[in-house]
Design goal:
- The structure holds two protein chains of two kinds.
- In chain A, the strands form two sheets. Chain A has a two-stranded parallel sheet. In chain A, strands 2-3 form a two-stranded parallel ribbon.
- Helices cover 51% and strands 11% of the residues of chain A.
- Chain A contains 13 helices and four strands.
- Chain A is mainly alpha-helical.
- In chain A, helix 4 packs across helix 5 and helix 5 packs across helix 6.
- In chain B, strands 1, 2, 3, 4, 5 and 6 form a six-stranded antiparallel β-sheet that branches.
- The chains are: A mainly alpha, B alpha+beta.
Amino acid sequence: MADHEHHHHDHDHDHSDLSETELRVRALETILTEKGYVDPAALDELIETYETKVGPRNGAQVVAKAWSDPAYRERLLHDATAAIAELGYTGRQGEHIVAVENTPATHNMVVCTLCSCYPWPVLGLPPVWYKSAPYRSRVVKEPRAVLAEFGVTLPQDTAIRVWDSTAEIRYLVIPMRPDGSDDLSEGQLADLVTRDSMIGTGLARTPAEITA
Amino acid sequence: MNGAHDMGGMDGFGPIVIEANEPLFHAAWERRAFALTLAMGRPGGWNIDMSRFARENRAPIDYLSKSYYQLWLAGLEVLMAERGLVTADEIAAGRPLHPRRDVQVLTAADVTPMLARGAPTERDAAAPARFGVGDRVRAKDLHPRTHIRLPRYVRGRIGTIELVHGAHVFPDSHAHGGGEQPQWLYTVAFEARELWGDDADPTSRVSVDAWDSYLERA
C-alpha cells in the first residue's frame, strides 16, 4: 500500500540523524540543568501532563455534552472558551476557542498552514500528519481530496469550510451525532467522538462500530 | 516573512501520511525537547510570536529538512543564544562555559497553574472595530521580511468578515520586541474560487484570522 511505504520513508527521514539530535538534546538538558535554568521535576510534570491528562478524551467530553444537552450546545456555539472551561479544560493553546458545528449541509475542517496551531486543552498535542507539509499545504486548496485520503467522502453538495488558525483563535469541530445513538449515555457518546472528527478529517464513529 | 513555513496552497509535498495508533512522541529526545522548550519560556521571557519567528526564520531547505521537534529545538537555541542563556559553544561542548544569568525558573509546582493560565491575547480595544460581520474586505499584499500571520495564499484576495474577535496582541510587533500594540482581529472567509481560480470547488471556502492592518475595505 502506498501509504505504508510513505510511512516508512517518512519515518526514516524523520529519524535519519536521530543520534545527532539525541546527543544535542541530551547536551542541552545537561547544560540547562547544571546552569539551574530548568528544574528536572518541572520537565517530568510537563511530560506527565500531556502524556496522561490532556488529550482528545477531553474534547470528546465536550462534544458528547453538546450532543446531549441543548443548552450546553448553545453556550458552546456562543462562547466555546467559557463552555469548555465549565468542564475544566482551559489554558495554553486554548485561550480563545471557537466551536464550529458540522451539519448535513456543511462540513468543517481545521488546519494551521503557518505552523501547528491546535486546541491543546481539548485535543492534546497534534499528530504528526497535522503538522506535516502535505496536510498544511493541501487542505486549503483541495479539501475533498484530503478528506478522501482520510477515507471520508461527502456528498458533492455538502459545503466544506476550512478554518486556517492563523491567530490565537483555536477551532474545535463538533461532528454530527451519528444515527442510532439516541439511547446512549453521555459517557457512551464520548466513545463515538474521535480526535479526527474534532479536526474535521473524520466523522464520529457509529454505535455499531463501537460494539463490533 | 515569505518562508517555507507558509505552506498553504503549495504543491509537491505528496500524500498525507496517516499513522495508526500514533504515539504522542516518536523518540525519547522529542519528549525532552518538548518539555525543555515549555520550561524555558519562563527564564527566557520570550513570547509565542518570538518563538514562531525563531522557528520559521531559516532557509527553506533547513526548515523543510527538519522534523517538527527539530524545528522547536532550533528555535529554542536561537532564542536562548539571543538572550545569552545558552550559547552555541556551550551546546557544542555539552557543558556550561559561561556564567548563569539571574532569571526565574519554572518549578514543578508552577507547571499546572502556568498551563491553566496560558497566554490570553485579547486586550481592551482603543477604538471601535473598523469592520463588521458581512463586510467585504481585501487582504493587503504584504511581504515584510519580519514576522506576519497573513498567509500568502489570501494576499490580494477579497473575502467577507464572518467573526469579530475583539482586539488581540499584534504578532508582527510582538515578535520583534515592539510590544503588544493590540488590533482588532477578524475571521475572514474566502470563497475557494477567489483563492484558487475557476477550477476550484465552488462549495468550498477557507477562513483565516486576520488583524485589522492586514485588511482594507473592498
